[in-house]
């Protein structure tokens, strides 16, 4: 672990206050205990290595806006624990008590504040998943007499998915549906089948970070087309299709991740015509298509405009629950057959029980899905109000659906805010993760999938992190790795 303070160095009062973040958790009566717990965590986490010189009590008290008595009491607790050593005339410094281990369990009263994870734009389960699981048990019993392998997916589920596409304006048969282990799995299979090493894949910029990684894992070259302030630069897409001749495209036309834009019907018609002229297959990520907050009719799927060139991927993860890990591909029957053949090098099918559960959910009433959309729209408004109040110099547009705000920052500090925010108990993804070659440092994605009170607290902590970044240069996180969904 990379230390925040160099071993043997000295930390001043203002820097220590920044490292502590939101250290006070239980009111003034427990201030000394909370302060000692915060210092203890920094020591055991390696951010204040043994031998780090500590600021004088009076200076730290001023930086934290607390009494010197409280700091002295915290120092005494740490001395008793062996985490601080003091010598008259020489000051105080950190130490590691004999037998202590970095990353070890903390005493219950010293548990740090809950980390708010805004790196994963995934809501919790929709009501009814447990009931659906119970309802399908008799059908599972019938499946147990067979081998349990369904390379294309359980027929009942493929029928339900095909019905949904037909309802949306794209007539579909079960033979045009392949069940996968999530939408990302479908994209990976399309890459494996259609793209060779060194070939180009057209993507949006910004786009879903895991899609960028999938392109790289296929040893292909991502070719980004920048999104504009109004959405897709269709002229730029047309030019890239002509000039770069990509072997495949990957686009998110419904509540684009992370910008939240939705391509209208006229735009889909133009995009479909461009893809047909170039004869470029396209994977359309539809994982958020059900999260529409508006009452008007939705535009038809892109397959209605580009025909068999479209490989649509969907998932139960955002609409129902990510833990089901069931997705699908909607493509021509001929391409589905080719994907099934290519799949054998990856896996032999998706779990039967989860498929039956998703089929039950798709066949049931849609009240819970309507409630999910209503709730997410309210969460979006809560987060938007909180960001406006806590970070008034951040700007964003209110998306008509989806799961996140795409915030423009007043300075190129996205990665630094993401690093410092972890000290304040918030995990966010910097804008650079959404581009294949970095950049986008003026942008930050903020999902609104948490509860309203949590979103308000997250905005407050992010404001503190932003102030900390503005006051001093902040280091990047230890390994730069943040899991993103």
Concise account of the structure shown:
The chain is α/β, with parallel strands linked by helices and 485 residues long.
Segments where pLDDT lies below 50 for 5+ residues? Answer: 98-112, 472-480
Query: For the CA atoms, what is the radius of gyration?
Result: 26 Å
> What's the rounded overall pLDDT mean?
88
Strand % is: 5-15%
CATH class descriptor name of the largest domain? Alpha Beta
Terminal Cα span: 25 Å
Structural class: alpha/beta
Biggest sheet strand order reads 4-10-9-8-7-5-6
How many helices? 17
In helices, the fraction of residues equals 40-55%
* Number of DSSP E strands: 14
The name CATH uses for the topology of the largest domain is: Aspartate Aminotransferase, domain 2
The coarse silhouette is elongated
| Main sheet: strands, sense, barrel | 7 strands, mixed
Fourth CATH level, the homologous superfamily of the largest domain:
Type I PLP-dependent aspartate aminotransferase-like (Major domain)
